[in-house]
Structures are given as C-alpha cells and as structure tokens.
Design a protein that fits this description.
Elements: H1 10-14, E1 19-26, E2 42-43, E3 46-47, H2 48-59, E4 60-67, E5 79-82, H3 90-100, E6 105-110, H4 118-127, E7 133-137, E8 142-150, H5 154-162, H6 168-174, E9 178-182, H7 202-210
Parallel strand pairs: 1-4, 1-6, 4-5, 7-9
Antiparallel strand pairs: 2-3, 6-8, 7-8
Length: 211
C-alpha cells in the first residue's frame, strides 16, 4: 500500500472508509525557538493546524485537539480538551486525550508535524492490532508523536505523570506491549523531509515551504 502513495489523489482518499479511532492533535509547547505560535503559521492554503485538522477529519471518525489554552483553537471545529495539568509535556496531553476519546485507540500527532500521509497511518493502524502502543521508528530513534495508543495505557500514563516521569520514549521502551513501526523511504512525501519532520525553528519552516 505504501508504495502507491503518490498515485492516490486527495479526492480518492476521501472515499476510503474512516478509521474507527480518535485522532489527537497535541497543541502544547511554547514555540520559543520559532518566536510565534507554530500551529498558526501559513501552510497549504490554510495554517499548519488548519491543514492537520482537515486531513485528520478526512481520515478519522473523531478528532480532538489537546491544548493548555483551549480558547485559541475553538474556531477550528473539533472539540478541544484542556490538559489535565498545564505544561507537563506530551505525556500529559496524550493522557488527557485518552480519557476523553470515545474510541479505545487514539492516533497521536503534534500541531507542528504536518507531513504525515494517510497510507502510512492506515498501515500503522493495521499493525497496531494486539498492541497497547504502536509508534513510528527509524534508524535514529522512536517518534512517540506519530503513534497509536490504547486506553490500556491510561493507568501507566497516570502513574508516570504523577511520579513526574514525563519521558514518552522511556515509557514506550519499558512497556511490555509496545510495537515499533519502522519508517521506510516510501513513507516520505518529499525525498528530504520524512513524515516525522517537525517545525521548531524559522529554518524548519523554510524547509517545509520549500519541499
């Protein structure tokens, strides 16, 4: 399936059945290196967050945004979940979303990662059966913010959060029922930008616009 990604048009993707999962878009972070809110940077005729919301709504049965400041995102359409504890990182955001989601499994991504493709996510969903966590991986590291998490993780996430152990990578590495989905060259939308590319700095944003 992944090898045909360039042959599937945007319109044809809309005709595929939606995944019976919840998509969580994490909208935390302070954008210190960017100097302005990354989510609202112009991109693809909209903004990064607007583009992500549209793509996710075409793919998933439910879309939720998770934010420390929900009022900034209310006009985008999806329901906005407030982080249960402010400024505690993505682990807290995932837990907040899992507790709210109507589905047992959630697909997690961040508001500064606009280069996922739908075929990659559908393949990850197929491989996630039987696992509590399925995350994208490559030769350098895990990518916890392109991953599928089930409600079976709630207790472990709560324990980590209240023990102030906030590293998702550490939690995943120690989890007995986690699966690594390895990213391949075919998963890329552009040769030099992988699906886990995130926009942290003005230089990153320039690369995104030039892809």
């Amino acid at each position: 399936m992944l090898r045909s990604v360039n042959l599937i048009t945007r319109e044809s993707k809309k005709t595929l059945p939606k995944l019976e999962m919840t998509a969580l878009i994490l909208c935390g972070g302070q954008s210190k290196r960017m100097g302005r809110a990354k989510a609202f940077l112009p991109y693809a005729g909209s903004t990064i967050i607007g583009h992500l919301v549209e793509e996710m709504e075409n793919l998933f049965d439910e879309v939720l945004l998770v934010a420390n400041e929900p009022d900034s995102y209310l006009d985008l359409g999806p329901d906005v979940v407030r982080d249960m504890l402010p400024n505690r990182g993505p682990l807290c955001g995932i837990l907040s979303g899992l507790l709210t989601a109507k589905h047992d499994k959630v697909f997690v991504t961040a508001c500064d990662m606009p280069l996922f493709n739908q075929d990659l996510i559908r393949s990850m969903e197929l491989e996630s059966n039987g696992f509590d966590i399925t995350v994208l991986a490559h030769e350098e590291r895990l990518e916890p913010l392109i991953g599928i998490y089930s409600k079976n993780c709630v207790k472990e996430l709560e324990e980590s959060l209240f023990a102030d152990k906030l590293s998702l990578t550490e939690l995943i590495s120690n989890h007995k029922n986690a699966h690594k989905f390895y990213c391949r060259y075919e998963d890329r939308l552009a040769p030099d930008l992988p699906p886990y590319f995130n926009v942290n700095t003005p230089s990153d944003y320039s690369k995104l616009l030039a892809k």
